[in-house]
Amino acid sequence: MALSRRLLPLFLRRGAPAVRALSTAAAPAAAVASEEEEESITVKGVRISGRPLYMDMQATTPVDPRVLDAMLPFYLSRYGNPHSRTHLYGWESDAAVEAARASVASLVGADPREIFFTSGATECNNIAVKGVMRFYRDRRRHVITTQTEHKCVLDSCRYLQQEGFEVTYLPVRSDGLVDLAQLEDAIRPDTGLVSVMAVNNEIGVVQPLEEIGRICKEKGVPFHTDAAQALGKIPIDVNRMGIGLMSLSGHKIYGPKGVGALYLRRRPRIRVEPQMSGGGQERGIRSGTVPTPLVVGFGAACEIAAQEMDYDHRRVSALQQRLLDGIRAQVDEVVINGSMEHRYPGNLNLSFAYVEGESLLMGLKEVAVSSGSACTSASLEPSYVLRALGVEEDMAHTSIRFGIGRFTTEEEVDRAIELTVRQVKKLRDMSPLYEMAKAGIDLKSIEWSQH
C-alpha cells in the first residue's frame, strides 16, 4: 500500500479528503478515510468502488508472472547492451535475445533468421506495407487490403496513395470474412502486396489464411498478415499458410508492452525498405538498440503460449459460452457481430438493440470493456469495422466488446453478466424506442420530424 499511495496521486484523485497527520483529533477520521480509500477510487471524475473486472483482453493482456520472472534478471543484473561485442554483459544479453528469437520463430513455424524485433505490431505493419511497396516501387504499384484492417494498416495504405500507389480496399461479407473470389479478381500484374488481418481486433473473426496464402502464391504476390490478435491463440504455420510477412505483438499474449516482431520470409526472399535509419541493428531492417528485457519477456510468452494454447482455447471457449448464454437468457435483442463459426472465442462483440453504447459503457464502471478498438475508442463515430459488415449505424453504436483471457475466472464472467444485464434493462426502461418496438411498432416505418 505504501508504494501505491505514492504512485496513485500522479493519475488518480482519491475519494477521501486528505487529513493532517499531526492532528490528534483527526485520528478517528483518518481511520475512516483510510477505509473509504480502500473501497473507492475516483478516476477522471468517475467514482468506482474498487478496481473493475478486466475484460478488455484485445486492448492488452496482463503480463504472465512467469514472463515477469524471466525478464527481471535482465533489468537487475544482466543489463548489458546486446550489441556490445567486447564483454560478458553484451554476450549474455545477445544470447538471451537469440534464444527469444528462436522461441518466437518456433511458435509460428519460422526460421529464427526470419524474425526481426520491433517496438510492436504497428511498427511491423508500417515496415511491411510501406517497406515492401517502396522497395519494389518500379514494378509494383498496387496494394490490396480489406476495409476491416487495423487503423495502422489502413493509414499506411493511405500514405502510399499519397505517393502515387493504388490501393484496393476489399469489402467483407456480413460475417466479417473476406470473399476469396473477390480477392483473386482484384489481383493485378502490378500488385505488390496483399494485406489481410488474421484475427480481427474488434470482432474476433478468423480469416481463411491458408486459402488467401494459396491464392497469393499462385499469383506471385507477397501475403502480409497482421497476426497481433492471433499469435498464441490460434495455430499459425507460416509455410503451410503461405505467409510472406507477418506482424506480431508481445502485449497481446501476456508479454510486455513495447515489443513486437516482424516475420520476413527468406525463401523466396521478400525485401523491404527500412523505415528507420540508424545503427543497422536487426540486420538493417530495424535500427535501434534491442530492448533485451522486453524481448526476453516476448520469448517467454511465446514459449508458454506454445505449451498452453490448447488448454487456453478450451477454457476460453467455455467462458465465452457461459457469458453469451448468461446474457441471452435474461436480455432479448442481442446480436453477435461477426462469424461465430470462424472466430477466436476470447473476443465476443455484442450489440444490444435500443441501448446507446456510450451510456452502457458509462454504466458498466465495474467492468473494463470497450466499444471497439482501443486505438480508435476516443472517436464517437460508430466502428468502421461494424459498418463494413453492414451493421446499421444505431446497432453499431450499441456494440460492446468483451475480452476473455487466460486469467479470467467464472466468477468474473458471472459478475459481468449480472452488471451488463442490469444496465441494459435500466437503459431500456428509459427508452421509448424499446417500448414502441415491444408494442409491435415498426420503427423504420416512422417518419421522424424536427421541432
Automatic annotation (TrEMBL):
PANTHER family with a match to the protein in the record: CYSTEINE DESULFURASE, CYSTEINE DESULFURYLASE FAMILY MEMBER
Top-level taxon of origin: Eukaryota
EC number: 2.8.1.7
Family stated for the protein in its record: Belongs to the class-V pyridoxal-phosphate-dependent aminotransferase family. NifS/IscS subfamily.
PROSITE patterns for the chain: AA_TRANSFER_CLASS_5
Required cofactor(s): pyridoxal 5'-phosphate
Entry GO MF terms: cysteine desulfurase activity; iron-sulfur cluster binding; metal ion binding; pyridoxal phosphate binding
One GO term describing the cellular component: cytosol
HAMAP family: Cys_desulf_IscS
One Gene Ontology term from the biological process aspect of the record: iron-sulfur cluster assembly
Pfam families the record matches: Aminotran_5 (PF00266)
Protein name as it appears in the record: cysteine desulfurase
Organism field: Setaria italica
Keywords: Iron, Iron-sulfur, Metal-binding, Pyridoxal phosphate, Transferase
